[in-house]
Amino acid sequence: MKKLLAYFFVVINIGLMQSQAYKSFVAKGDSCYNIKNYKASVGFYEKAFEIEHKVSSDLYNAACSAAQDHDDKKAFKWLDLSIDNGFENIAHIKIDRDLESLRSKKEWQKTIDKLQKKMDSMSMNYDKPLQAELLAIYTEDQQVRHEYMKVYKEKGAGTKEVDSVGNIMLEKDSLNLIKVMKILDERGWVGKDVVGAQANQTLFLVIQHSDLKYQQKYMPMMKDAVKKGNAKASSLALLEDRVALREDRNQIYGSQISMTSGSKAFVLPLEDPDNVDKRRAEVGLGPIADYVRKWNIVWNVEEYKKELPELEKISNQKKAK
Predict the structure, then answer these.
(1) Phi, psi for residue 251 in degrees, rounded to 5
(2) How far apart are the C-alpha atoms of 126 and 122, rounded to whole Å?
(3) Rounded-to-10 torsion of CA 74, 79, 85, 88
(4) Are 191 and 229 in contact (CB under 8 A)?
(5) Spatial separation of the C-alpha atoms in residues 312 and 258, rounded to whole Å
(6) Contact 273/305 with Cβ under 8 angstroms?
(7) Of the given ranges (187-201, 242-256, 303-317), which has the lowest mean pLDDT?
Protein backbone atom coordinates (compact mmCIF):
# COMPACT_ATOMS: atom_id res chain seq x y z
CA MET A 1 0.00 0.00 0.00
CA LYS A 2 2.82 2.43 0.88
CA LYS A 3 4.44 1.80 -2.51
CA LEU A 4 1.12 2.39 -4.22
CA LEU A 5 0.56 5.67 -2.35
CA ALA A 6 4.07 6.78 -3.16
CA TYR A 7 3.40 6.08 -6.84
CA PHE A 8 0.26 8.22 -6.77
CA PHE A 9 2.11 11.06 -5.08
CA VAL A 10 4.79 10.92 -7.78
CA VAL A 11 2.15 10.98 -10.52
CA ILE A 12 0.38 13.95 -8.89
CA ASN A 13 3.66 15.85 -8.47
CA ILE A 14 4.60 15.25 -12.10
CA GLY A 15 1.16 16.45 -13.17
CA LEU A 16 1.50 19.62 -11.08
CA MET A 17 4.98 20.30 -12.44
CA GLN A 18 3.75 19.87 -16.01
CA SER A 19 0.78 22.16 -15.38
CA GLN A 20 3.04 24.83 -13.89
CA ALA A 21 5.48 24.51 -16.79
CA TYR A 22 2.62 24.82 -19.28
CA LYS A 23 1.30 27.98 -17.61
CA SER A 24 4.82 29.42 -17.46
CA PHE A 25 5.46 28.88 -21.18
CA VAL A 26 2.05 30.34 -22.09
CA ALA A 27 2.70 33.38 -19.89
CA LYS A 28 6.07 33.91 -21.56
CA GLY A 29 4.43 33.51 -24.96
CA ASP A 30 1.89 36.16 -24.01
CA SER A 31 4.59 38.51 -22.70
CA CYS A 32 6.64 38.20 -25.90
CA TYR A 33 3.52 38.85 -27.95
CA ASN A 34 2.86 42.04 -25.96
CA ILE A 35 6.31 43.41 -26.81
CA LYS A 36 5.92 42.24 -30.44
CA ASN A 37 8.66 39.62 -30.23
CA TYR A 38 6.51 37.19 -32.17
CA LYS A 39 9.24 34.66 -32.98
CA ALA A 40 10.04 34.19 -29.30
CA SER A 41 6.32 34.05 -28.53
CA VAL A 42 5.84 31.21 -31.04
CA GLY A 43 8.78 29.36 -29.49
CA PHE A 44 7.30 29.50 -26.00
CA TYR A 45 3.89 28.38 -27.24
CA GLU A 46 5.53 25.45 -29.00
CA LYS A 47 7.11 24.38 -25.71
CA ALA A 48 3.75 24.71 -23.95
CA PHE A 49 1.99 22.60 -26.57
CA GLU A 50 4.56 19.84 -26.20
CA ILE A 51 3.04 19.42 -22.73
CA GLU A 52 -0.62 19.76 -23.79
CA HIS A 53 -2.71 21.47 -26.46
CA LYS A 54 -6.28 21.51 -25.23
CA VAL A 55 -6.96 25.13 -24.26
CA SER A 56 -8.67 26.82 -27.19
CA SER A 57 -7.80 30.38 -26.13
CA ASP A 58 -4.10 29.56 -25.81
CA LEU A 59 -4.09 27.85 -29.20
CA TYR A 60 -5.85 30.82 -30.78
CA ASN A 61 -3.42 33.30 -29.22
CA ALA A 62 -0.50 31.19 -30.42
CA ALA A 63 -1.96 31.27 -33.94
CA CYS A 64 -2.05 35.07 -33.73
CA SER A 65 1.64 35.16 -32.80
CA ALA A 66 2.50 32.75 -35.61
CA ALA A 67 0.56 34.85 -38.13
CA GLN A 68 2.41 37.97 -36.99
CA ASP A 69 5.66 36.02 -37.38
CA HIS A 70 4.57 35.06 -40.95
CA ASP A 71 4.59 31.38 -40.03
CA ASP A 72 1.37 30.50 -41.85
CA LYS A 73 1.74 26.74 -41.40
CA LYS A 74 1.81 26.97 -37.59
CA ALA A 75 -0.89 29.64 -37.55
CA PHE A 76 -3.37 27.49 -39.46
CA LYS A 77 -2.41 24.37 -37.50
CA TRP A 78 -3.09 26.13 -34.18
CA LEU A 79 -6.30 27.72 -35.43
CA ASP A 80 -7.49 24.27 -36.48
CA LEU A 81 -6.65 22.82 -33.06
CA SER A 82 -8.32 25.77 -31.38
CA ILE A 83 -11.57 25.05 -33.22
CA ASP A 84 -11.28 21.35 -32.34
CA ASN A 85 -10.93 22.28 -28.67
CA GLY A 86 -13.90 24.61 -28.39
CA PHE A 87 -13.16 27.95 -30.09
CA GLU A 88 -16.49 29.42 -31.25
CA ASN A 89 -15.95 33.14 -31.81
CA ILE A 90 -16.53 33.35 -35.54
CA ALA A 91 -17.35 37.07 -35.37
CA HIS A 92 -13.98 37.82 -33.77
CA ILE A 93 -11.82 35.67 -36.02
CA LYS A 94 -13.18 37.51 -39.06
CA ILE A 95 -12.04 40.92 -37.79
CA ASP A 96 -8.92 40.07 -35.75
CA ARG A 97 -6.10 42.23 -37.15
CA ASP A 98 -3.50 39.72 -35.98
CA LEU A 99 -4.79 37.28 -38.60
CA GLU A 100 -4.98 39.76 -41.48
CA SER A 101 -2.04 38.21 -43.34
CA LEU A 102 -3.82 34.83 -43.42
CA ARG A 103 -7.00 35.99 -45.12
CA SER A 104 -5.53 35.89 -48.62
CA LYS A 105 -4.35 32.27 -48.19
CA LYS A 106 -6.32 29.33 -49.54
CA GLU A 107 -6.34 27.70 -46.10
CA TRP A 108 -8.26 30.65 -44.66
CA GLN A 109 -11.60 29.81 -46.24
CA LYS A 110 -11.20 26.17 -45.16
CA THR A 111 -10.69 27.36 -41.58
CA ILE A 112 -13.73 29.63 -41.69
CA ASP A 113 -15.85 26.92 -43.33
CA LYS A 114 -14.84 24.44 -40.62
CA LEU A 115 -15.77 26.88 -37.87
CA GLN A 116 -19.03 27.86 -39.61
CA LYS A 117 -20.00 24.19 -39.99
CA LYS A 118 -19.34 23.66 -36.30
CA MET A 119 -21.40 26.72 -35.39
CA ASP A 120 -24.25 25.67 -37.70
CA SER A 121 -24.35 22.27 -36.05
CA MET A 122 -24.45 23.81 -32.58
CA SER A 123 -27.06 26.42 -33.48
CA MET A 124 -29.81 24.24 -34.92
CA ASN A 125 -32.25 25.32 -32.18
CA TYR A 126 -31.04 28.92 -31.77
CA ASP A 127 -33.12 32.03 -32.35
CA LYS A 128 -31.32 32.76 -35.64
CA PRO A 129 -32.60 36.33 -36.24
CA LEU A 130 -31.71 37.40 -32.69
CA GLN A 131 -28.34 35.67 -32.92
CA ALA A 132 -27.56 37.44 -36.20
CA GLU A 133 -28.54 40.81 -34.72
CA LEU A 134 -26.30 40.32 -31.68
CA LEU A 135 -23.36 39.07 -33.73
CA ALA A 136 -23.62 42.14 -35.97
CA ILE A 137 -23.56 44.33 -32.85
CA TYR A 138 -20.54 42.41 -31.57
CA THR A 139 -18.64 42.97 -34.81
CA GLU A 140 -19.41 46.69 -34.79
CA ASP A 141 -18.46 47.03 -31.11
CA GLN A 142 -15.12 45.30 -31.56
CA GLN A 143 -14.16 46.69 -34.98
CA VAL A 144 -14.30 50.29 -33.85
CA ARG A 145 -12.28 49.43 -30.73
CA HIS A 146 -9.62 47.70 -32.81
CA GLU A 147 -9.45 50.81 -35.00
CA TYR A 148 -9.25 53.05 -31.94
CA MET A 149 -6.34 51.08 -30.46
CA LYS A 150 -4.55 51.07 -33.82
CA VAL A 151 -4.79 54.85 -34.14
CA TYR A 152 -3.96 55.31 -30.46
CA LYS A 153 -0.73 53.34 -30.84
CA GLU A 154 0.22 55.16 -34.05
CA LYS A 155 -0.75 58.74 -33.11
CA GLY A 156 -0.88 58.83 -29.32
CA ALA A 157 -3.42 60.16 -26.84
CA GLY A 158 -5.00 63.58 -27.34
CA THR A 159 -4.50 63.71 -31.12
CA LYS A 160 -7.23 64.68 -33.58
CA GLU A 161 -7.12 61.24 -35.17
CA VAL A 162 -7.69 59.49 -31.83
CA ASP A 163 -10.45 61.89 -30.82
CA SER A 164 -12.15 61.38 -34.19
CA VAL A 165 -12.25 57.58 -33.85
CA GLY A 166 -13.24 58.00 -30.20
CA ASN A 167 -16.27 60.06 -31.21
CA ILE A 168 -17.28 57.43 -33.78
CA MET A 169 -16.94 54.76 -31.07
CA LEU A 170 -19.19 56.71 -28.69
CA GLU A 171 -21.82 57.13 -31.40
CA LYS A 172 -21.78 53.41 -32.26
CA ASP A 173 -21.93 52.52 -28.55
CA SER A 174 -25.04 54.70 -28.13
CA LEU A 175 -26.80 53.07 -31.07
CA ASN A 176 -25.82 49.56 -29.98
CA LEU A 177 -27.01 50.29 -26.44
CA ILE A 178 -30.50 51.18 -27.73
CA LYS A 179 -30.68 47.85 -29.57
CA VAL A 180 -29.41 45.80 -26.61
CA MET A 181 -31.66 47.57 -24.08
CA LYS A 182 -34.67 46.67 -26.23
CA ILE A 183 -33.58 43.01 -26.21
CA LEU A 184 -32.96 43.00 -22.46
CA ASP A 185 -36.22 44.76 -21.63
CA GLU A 186 -38.29 42.47 -23.87
CA ARG A 187 -36.46 39.14 -23.65
CA GLY A 188 -34.27 39.36 -20.55
CA TRP A 189 -30.65 38.22 -20.53
CA VAL A 190 -30.93 35.56 -23.23
CA GLY A 191 -28.54 32.68 -22.70
CA LYS A 192 -26.11 30.93 -25.01
CA ASP A 193 -28.65 28.12 -25.37
CA VAL A 194 -30.84 30.64 -27.23
CA VAL A 195 -28.31 32.64 -29.26
CA GLY A 196 -24.91 30.96 -28.81
CA ALA A 197 -21.96 31.92 -26.62
CA GLN A 198 -20.67 34.86 -28.65
CA ALA A 199 -24.03 36.52 -29.21
CA ASN A 200 -24.75 36.06 -25.51
CA GLN A 201 -21.42 37.74 -24.64
CA THR A 202 -22.43 40.74 -26.77
CA LEU A 203 -25.00 41.71 -24.13
CA PHE A 204 -22.23 42.08 -21.54
CA LEU A 205 -19.90 43.97 -23.87
CA VAL A 206 -22.46 46.63 -24.75
CA ILE A 207 -23.47 47.17 -21.11
CA GLN A 208 -19.80 47.20 -20.05
CA HIS A 209 -19.20 50.02 -22.54
CA SER A 210 -22.25 52.05 -21.46
CA ASP A 211 -22.70 54.86 -18.93
CA LEU A 212 -22.92 54.12 -15.21
CA LYS A 213 -26.71 54.51 -14.97
CA TYR A 214 -27.23 51.73 -17.52
CA GLN A 215 -24.65 49.50 -15.85
CA GLN A 216 -26.45 50.00 -12.53
CA LYS A 217 -29.81 49.25 -14.16
CA TYR A 218 -28.80 45.98 -15.83
CA MET A 219 -26.23 44.58 -13.38
CA PRO A 220 -28.94 42.94 -11.19
CA MET A 221 -30.34 41.29 -14.34
CA MET A 222 -26.87 39.99 -15.21
CA LYS A 223 -26.36 38.68 -11.65
CA ASP A 224 -29.60 36.72 -11.98
CA ALA A 225 -28.48 35.47 -15.41
CA VAL A 226 -25.20 34.19 -13.92
CA LYS A 227 -27.17 32.20 -11.32
CA LYS A 228 -29.23 30.64 -14.13
CA GLY A 229 -26.18 29.92 -16.30
CA ASN A 230 -27.15 32.54 -18.88
CA ALA A 231 -24.11 34.79 -18.34
CA LYS A 232 -20.48 34.30 -17.32
CA ALA A 233 -19.43 34.99 -13.73
CA SER A 234 -16.06 36.21 -15.01
CA SER A 235 -17.77 38.86 -17.17
CA LEU A 236 -19.97 39.95 -14.28
CA ALA A 237 -16.82 40.42 -12.21
CA LEU A 238 -15.47 42.88 -14.79
CA LEU A 239 -18.74 44.81 -14.76
CA GLU A 240 -18.79 44.87 -10.95
CA ASP A 241 -15.25 46.28 -10.90
CA ARG A 242 -16.11 49.03 -13.36
CA VAL A 243 -19.25 50.01 -11.47
CA ALA A 244 -17.42 50.00 -8.13
CA LEU A 245 -14.79 52.43 -9.40
CA ARG A 246 -17.42 54.70 -10.97
CA GLU A 247 -19.23 54.73 -7.61
CA ASP A 248 -15.97 55.81 -5.89
CA ARG A 249 -15.38 52.40 -4.34
CA ASN A 250 -12.34 50.15 -4.77
CA GLN A 251 -12.63 47.33 -7.30
CA ILE A 252 -12.90 43.72 -6.12
CA TYR A 253 -11.17 41.62 -8.80
CA GLY A 254 -8.42 43.91 -10.10
CA SER A 255 -9.68 43.85 -13.70
CA GLN A 256 -9.51 47.61 -14.31
CA ILE A 257 -6.18 49.04 -15.41
CA SER A 258 -5.17 52.65 -16.04
CA MET A 259 -2.08 54.57 -17.14
CA THR A 260 -0.04 57.25 -15.42
CA SER A 261 0.95 60.41 -17.30
CA GLY A 262 4.20 58.63 -18.18
CA SER A 263 2.25 55.81 -19.84
CA LYS A 264 3.01 53.36 -17.04
CA ALA A 265 0.15 50.94 -16.42
CA PHE A 266 -1.18 50.27 -12.93
CA VAL A 267 -4.03 48.37 -11.27
CA LEU A 268 -6.71 50.83 -10.20
CA PRO A 269 -7.51 50.91 -6.45
CA LEU A 270 -8.23 47.38 -5.24
CA GLU A 271 -10.02 46.17 -2.12
CA ASP A 272 -8.13 43.64 0.05
CA PRO A 273 -5.22 42.96 -2.37
CA ASP A 274 -4.01 40.00 -0.27
CA ASN A 275 -7.03 37.89 -1.19
CA VAL A 276 -7.64 39.04 -4.76
CA ASP A 277 -6.59 35.72 -6.31
CA LYS A 278 -9.04 33.84 -4.10
CA ARG A 279 -11.87 36.09 -5.28
CA ARG A 280 -10.75 35.84 -8.90
CA ALA A 281 -10.65 32.04 -8.73
CA GLU A 282 -14.22 31.97 -7.39
CA VAL A 283 -15.51 33.62 -10.59
CA GLY A 284 -13.28 31.77 -13.04
CA LEU A 285 -10.54 34.38 -13.47
CA GLY A 286 -6.86 33.43 -13.45
CA PRO A 287 -4.23 34.84 -11.06
CA ILE A 288 -3.86 38.60 -11.15
CA ALA A 289 -0.10 38.27 -11.81
CA ASP A 290 -0.88 36.55 -15.12
CA TYR A 291 -3.60 39.05 -15.99
CA VAL A 292 -1.57 42.24 -15.42
CA ARG A 293 1.44 40.88 -17.28
CA LYS A 294 -0.35 41.94 -20.50
CA TRP A 295 0.32 45.54 -19.47
CA ASN A 296 3.92 44.78 -18.45
CA ILE A 297 2.97 45.04 -14.78
CA VAL A 298 4.90 42.85 -12.34
CA TRP A 299 2.47 42.02 -9.53
CA ASN A 300 3.90 42.36 -6.03
CA VAL A 301 1.14 42.57 -3.45
CA GLU A 302 3.31 44.13 -0.73
CA GLU A 303 4.56 46.84 -3.09
CA TYR A 304 1.03 47.42 -4.32
CA LYS A 305 -0.26 47.96 -0.78
CA LYS A 306 2.48 50.54 -0.19
CA GLU A 307 1.59 52.31 -3.44
CA LEU A 308 -2.18 52.12 -2.94
CA PRO A 309 -2.65 55.55 -1.27
CA GLU A 310 -0.80 57.22 -4.15
CA LEU A 311 -2.74 55.19 -6.73
CA GLU A 312 -5.99 56.32 -5.11
CA LYS A 313 -4.85 59.94 -5.46
CA ILE A 314 -4.00 59.44 -9.14
CA SER A 315 -7.34 57.73 -9.72
CA ASN A 316 -9.24 60.58 -8.05
CA GLN A 317 -7.32 63.15 -10.09
CA LYS A 318 -8.30 61.36 -13.31
CA LYS A 319 -11.97 61.38 -12.27
CA ALA A 320 -11.81 65.10 -11.49
CA LYS A 321 -10.61 65.97 -15.04
Answers:
(1) -70, 165
(2) 8
(3) 170
(4) yes
(5) 12
(6) yes
(7) 303-317
